[in-house]
Amino acid sequence: MGLNEEQKEFQKVAFDFAAQEMAPHMAEWDQKELFPVDAMRKAAQLGFGGVYVRTDVGGSGLSRLDTSVIFEALATGCTSTTAYISIHNMCVWMIDTFGNEEQRYKYCPPLCTMEKFASYCLTEPGSGSDAASLLTSAKQQGDHYILNGSKAFISGGGESDIYVVMCRTGGPGPKGISCIVVEKGTPGLSFGKKEKKVGWNSQPTCAVIFEDCAVPMANRIGDEGQGFIIAMKGLNGGRINVASCSLGAAHASVILTRDYLNVRKQFGEPLASNQYLQFKLADMATRLVASRLIIRSAAVALQEEREDAVALCSMAKLFATDECFAICNQALQMHGGYGYLKDYAVQQYVRDSRVHQILEGSNEVMRMLISRSLLQE
């Protein structure tokens, strides 16, 4: 799927930003666990804070395909930071798409500039893959909801200003779930300890806790009982986004490996002259392009709201995150002992891309969704 001239232009902008503003700091952000607020706000100045959000509230109004192209390019500079930017974008899109006009104009402009940051709150300690069984409650009291419960593994937790929370306003199951925006500083909102993670260290992850947290009913996005639908529609795009971040990690790893093979000598000649390694590199590049094509195909299907969009998004996330992690891992192997040193960036792409096979719906859940769509035909 070729890109038009406009897409090539913002792809170049994203690659340049990744090379100049992200890649030089990637290792430091990882090792010191820094949340790079200034760099992300610079990215937002280029329109990357609300890529597929409507322009009247400050978004860029681009397509899902455009978004994938941008996130792949940014992720070559720092996969972890780009993954957070992608989650932030998903939250802004949910408010823009399902919020009323007052909510859109209140929340979206400062989120698009990344003056404020957003987090997506679905997962709980007892409900990961089985998201519809979530227990966080929101009971109506006058013109407020009183929230009680906790969310787990929340990217941006403690740092974000806006929390898009899925909570139970009705009975059991998906139809009892609503979507409510909770702002940082609301009494009763607190955060657990910052988790120590294998990768994704440039974004904080922690529990988000609600203890008699009173939130105005005006903060509910959409109708009561619509929350699970909103959450799943957000995740369809989120799966393309995180798969695109895997593309960026694999893309960078292929380039690093190519360059390493050209300069590293063993047995009197560059590793690049070894046919076995040439074939390995060819396989990596082929799997990268195959992953890119399935992601872009899914992005177009989602943009067009086709019936097969959910299945294609699941296939793209499953295939690309598995394949791209394998590419990064093979790249590390081809760097030999140097690949295991933190002085070499390839190990960070391995660590940062591994979690993509787990979050936004684990790849086991992706297989379940795909098989379900096939069996229902």
TrEMBL record:
Residues 120-213 form the Acyl-CoA oxidase/dehydrogenase middle domain. The active site is at E360. It is an enzyme of class 1 (oxidoreductase). Residues 4-115 form the Acyl-CoA dehydrogenase/oxidase N-terminal domain. It catalyses: 2-methylpropanoyl-CoA + oxidized [electron-transfer flavoprotein] + H(+) = 2-methylpropenoyl-CoA + reduced [electron-transfer flavoprotein]; (2S)-2-methylbutanoyl-CoA + oxidized [electron-transfer flavoprotein] + H(+) = (2E)-2-methylbut-2-enoyl-CoA + reduced [electron-transfer flavoprotein]; propanoyl-CoA + oxidized [electron-transfer flavoprotein] + H(+) = acryloyl-CoA + reduced [electron-transfer flavoprotein]. Its cofactor is FAD. GO terms for cellular component: mitochondrion. The keyword Acetylation applies. It comes from Lynx pardinus (Iberian lynx). Keywords: Acetylation, Branched-chain amino acid catabolism, FAD, Flavoprotein, Oxidoreductase, Transit peptide. It comes from the Eukaryota. Isobutyryl-CoA dehydrogenase which catalyzes the conversion of 2-methylpropanoyl-CoA to (2E)-2-methylpropenoyl-CoA in the valine catabolic pathway. To a lesser extent, also able to catalyze the oxidation of (2S)-2-methylbutanoyl-CoA. This is Isobutyryl-CoA dehydrogenase, mitochondrial. One of its GO terms (biological process) is lipid metabolic process. PANTHER family: ISOBUTYRYL-COA DEHYDROGENASE (PTHR43831), ISOBUTYRYL-COA DEHYDROGENASE, MITOCHONDRIAL (PTHR43831:SF1). Coiled coil: none annotated. InterPro entries: Acyl-CoA_DH_CS, Acyl-CoA_Oxase/DH_mid-dom, Acyl-CoA_Oxase/DH_mid-dom_sf, AcylCo_DH-like_C, AcylCo_DH/oxidase_C, AcylCoA_DH/ox_N, AcylCoA_DH/ox_N_sf, AcylCoA_DH/oxidase_NM_dom_sf. Belongs to the acyl-CoA dehydrogenase family. Gene3D superfamilies: Acyl-CoA dehydrogenase/oxidase, N-terminal domain, Butyryl-CoA Dehydrogenase, subunit A, domain 2, Butyryl-CoA Dehydrogenase, subunit A, domain 3. Its EC number is 1.3.8.5.
